[in-house]
Amino acid sequence: MVYSEKVIDHFANPRNVGEIENADGIGEVGNSKCGDIMKMYIKVEDNTIADVKFKTFGCGAAIATSSMATELIKGKTIDDALQLTNKAVMEALDGLPPVKVHCSVLAEEAIKAAVSDYYKKQGVDPEVIVG
Amino acid sequence: MREIYADNSATTKLSPVVLEKMLPYLTEVYGNPSSIYRIGGKAREALDQARENIAKNLGAQRANEIYFTSGGSESDNWAIKGVAHAMKKKGKTHIITSKFEHHAVLHTCEALEKEGFEITYLDVYENGLVKPEDVAAAIREDTALVSVMYANNEIGTIQPIPEIGKICRERGVIFHTDAVQAAGYVRINVEEQHIDLLSMTAHKLHGPKGCGLLYVRRGVPIETLIHGGAQERGRRAGTENVAGVIGLDAALELALDGMEERNKRLSSLRDRLMDELLKIERSRVNGDRVHRLPNNVNMCFEGIEGESLLLRLDMNGISASSGSACTSGSLDPSHVLLAIGLPHEIAHGSMRLSFSEETTDEDIDVIAAVVPEVVQYLRNMSPLWEDIKKNERKGQ
Ligand SMILES: Cc1ncc(COP(=O)(O)O)c(C=O)c1O
Ligand SMILES: [Zn+2]
Fold it and tell me: Catalytic residue positions of A?
């Protein structure tokens, strides 16, 4: 199994690692039993992801996709962020080995979970918007 | 950057001494050992000599009890399927093995289960050791075979093979052991230890890949696995891997030469490293510390995942392995770590280091310095570690 150079780069130097104090939304997905957990924090201003941070327990692919996903949604509108698919994250990383595809869905799910949390905190039912 | 290869249980570097012995059989002496002209005869002679010497080194009474194969996986498959199918004709369809065998044994047993064989998987307890009395209790009237590995490939625990062998002999049950990891680190004597079948492979002892052997005690009923030509006394077809066999013999000879000295040095390196790394909070050693291969360290660090640990060690020049799900490409972590009772989330954070005679004191110093840094780095970005610390604070 070989990771692309981009995956290795994002794994070795993950972008946006950490927490946001008083985050507007926090999403945690995955579980320790299957081996990958991702927690995402977002700061929202004018319907835009003004800042995003993450913490991930997981393999190289899980950490690299977390890092790339945060890069891809930073500065984007919430609507655009919700459009981000794991496929797009994988493409941005120049692909993942087939056995690692399942690790990349976490990032997409974490964004949805963080946005849902944001809407809930705003008193909006996230079901309609996030799905 | 200093490169430290610490994955010798996966495979080893070919020894230059072994290579030198092999070379003539890859160049001038290329004849087929079954041919009657001189260049074939020379190859045959070398093959026979290697067989003699290996038999002596394993404590076998006869050279013709040694059968050359393509490696550990084939030997395990042949031993288990071969004996199972032969014994089925005598109405014996029960096999005893352990929960933490190599997949070459476990998946073979699972295949036999589908054919109607019944398999008992023995517990290996928290220390990763089979209890001989459990073997005795599991033996039945219809038991065809007991197969217990000599040393485990992940946690390095050395099983009480002579005791198990004795029980099997007394009860008249055929006993196979996968000695792929033990060979070269443990004194094996198939006679004294009552072993009926034994698997070995060359590439774990600085020999070439793709060459191994199955010891089959004379009189043990076993069916052929690889059908074809009359090689290996008609029991294992295929033109012999002459250079490979020469390499296997040379590698075993080399490993046994000065083994006790080497083991002493390696186990002191191993123990020093384990003690050093146990200073990391929420870490543990997997498997018994005493009944253990001298070159094996296997530990878990809570709150981190094994593959990312390996990748970061690799960035620091250290090659290691892990039993995490994500390194195996499945959703479950290593069956070995689960068999010794580790919960999934802890098993995911495992690391195996396996050394060789090339490993130095300085290598151990480097590893002892790098691992705690990497563990801390990964814990800092782990939401699981955050939860562990939160619960700790709550608990106080
Ligand atoms: C205990 C054990 N059995 C069998 C094998 C398989 O040996 P080979 O790679 O020669 O097929 C291995 C090697 O991974 C092993 O560690
Ligand atoms: Zn993963």
Answer: 34, 103
Q: Smallest Cβ distance to A56: which of B326, B345, B381?
A: B381
Domains in chain A: ranges and CATH: 5-120 (3.90.1010.10)
Which residues does chain B have with pLDDT short of 50? Answer: none
Binary contact (B384, A57; C-beta < 8 A): yes
Q: Predicted ipTM?
A: 0.94
Say which of A35, A56, A57 has its CB closest to residue B325.
A35
Convert the pLDDT of each residue in B250-294 to its tens digit. Answer: 999 999 999 999 999 999 999 999 999 999 999 999 999 999 999
Q: From the CA of B103, which ligand is nearest?
A: 1
How far B380 CA sits from the closest chain A CA (Å)? Answer: 8
The pLDDT tens digits for B287-330 are 999 999 999 999 999 999 999 999 999 999 999 998 776 666 56
SS (H, E, C) chain B: CCCEECECCCCCCCCHHHHHHHHHHHCCCCCCCCCCCHHHHHHHHHHHHHHHHHHHHCCCCCHHHEEEECCHHHHHHHHHHHHHHHHHCCCCCEEEEECCCCHHHHHHHHHHHHCCCEEEEECCCCCCCCCHHHHHHHCCCCEEEEECCCECCCCCEECCHHHHHHHHHHHCCEEEEECCCCECCECCCCCCCCCCEEEEEHHHCCCCCCCEEEEECCCCCCCCCCCCCCHHHHCCCCCCCHHHHHHHHHHHHHHHCCHHHHHHHHHHHHHHHHHHHCCCCCEEECCCCCCECCCEEEEEECCCCHHHHHHHHHHCCEECECCCHHHHCCCCCCHHHHHCCCCHHHHCCEEEEECCCCCCHHHHHHHHHHHHHHHHHHHHCCHHHHHHHHHHHHHC
